[in-house]
Amino acid sequence: MPQDVVDKRDAILRAAGKVFAERGYHATGISDIARELGAGHGTFYRYFKNKEDIARSVVARALGQVMDAIADEDPGSSQSLEQYREQVGRIGHKLFDLVVAEPALCRILFYDAIAIDRAEPELAGRAMEAAAQYTAAFIHNGQDRGFLRRDLDAHVVGLAVNGMILTGAVRLLHAQDPQAMRDPWIRTVETLMFDGLGSS
User: How confident is the model at residue 160 (pLDDT cuts 50, 70, 90)?
Assistant: First the structure.
């Protein structure tokens, strides 16, 4: 694909993502995106079929940004408990920083992804499953090295850990002081992973 086409598509997706995040998918029209971009309606139809096509691409772009944020973390790299804890903390901080830096991206993923695609209503489910498999790879490494209990289903644990991360991210979007939430939230998730809720 020529670079000018890539650049134009990216500009449209950035504008659409901003408007979807502000107005919501259903309340957004092509005219709203055109106004944000400063372009005519015809520009969109040279690159996308319709609003739904743009929205699917916005979600895919947002998911790609999430994965890019933690792409340098190898699930099998930690060889000691200290390294493992540090890696979990790094991932938490990277995801936290992404939510703070890209609130529009996160609002799309958290609130609009399910509503966006009538043709592929399982889009959000597939994304959650892929995220669970990614997290499960880290859990498997912890189990294999004896840092985590081996009797637990790594895939289910991955879903549970991601659920905690998702809940924290949603709260961050509405927090008056996101920075004040960061360390307590990450520390609590780490404690649940490594120590559980037992008092002894």
Answer: very high
Query: How far apart are alpha carbons 87 and 125 in whole angstroms?
Result: 26
pLDDT at res. 121: 58
Q: Taking the CB of residue 126, how many other CB atoms lie within 10 A of it?
A: 11
Cβ atoms of residues 132 and 159 within 8 Å: yes
Q: What is the pTM of this model?
A: 0.78
- How far apart are alpha carbons 110 and 103 in whole angstroms? 10
Over 90: is that where the pLDDT of 176 sits?
A: no
Q: Left (φ > 0), alpha (ψ -120 to 50) or beta: where does 38 sit?
A: left
Mean pLDDT of 142-169: 91
CA distance 185 to 121: 31
Percent of the chain as helix, strand, coil, to the nearest 5:
75, 0, 25
Residue 95 has pLDDT above 70, yes or no: yes
Return the amino acid letter for 38.
G
CATH number of 58-194: 1.10.357.10
In sequence order, the 6+-apart residues with CB closer than 8 A to the CB of 35 are none
Annotated domain spans of the chain:
58-194
